[in-house]
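User: Before I run my own analysis I want an independent prediction to cross-check against. Here's the chain; please return only the structure tokens and, at the end, one sentence I can use as a sanity check.
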Amino acid sequence: MNLIWNGHSCFTLETAEGSVVFDPYRDGSVPGLSPIRLTADLVLCSHDHRDHGARELVGLTGRTPSFSVETISTFHDPEGGALRGPDTIHIVAAEGMRLAHLGDLGCIPTPEQLDRLRGLDVLLIPVGGYYTIDASQAQELVEDLKPRIVVPMHYRSDTFGYEVIARLEDFLALRSDVVRYPGSALELTPHTPTQTAVLTYRF
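Assistant: Structure tokens:
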């Protein structure tokens, strides 16, 4: 399978069983990011905020993917959704692998939810804090779940992202297995080694 980072928390996952776009953002909703116009078999949004719920910007092919999708209902904040509402985790199982997109997770999942997230090959996890879990909480979650590949998202850089969220380096300082990629795409196989994969945003 092929994973492409489109910026912020938006990814395209291309598999032999179909394609999906996660959390597309609306034009101008994330400082520094270019508008997106994507195509896939399916679009999945963790919630309907402007920077995650732009379903209308993904053209659907009309094909029905054969991979399975599992959802976990959680929250965008540590107060049961009272501050920012709900968040949905999506788990896609394709090509014998499991990938989870945590959306704007703002709380620590329950023990039962953590059990459902074990055995992941790939974990797409927010690390910027303020609106989501922060770097230290993300690290604790990764240490608990032990996914094979960790892909951080929803952070700030010198050229993009919200001023109130933290930089990627805060999370990377807690990781010992960082691999930086010069492009925005990552090929994923059952043999891809354990790593924290940092993709490069392509303007």
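Sanity check: The first strand starts at residue 2 and ends at 7.
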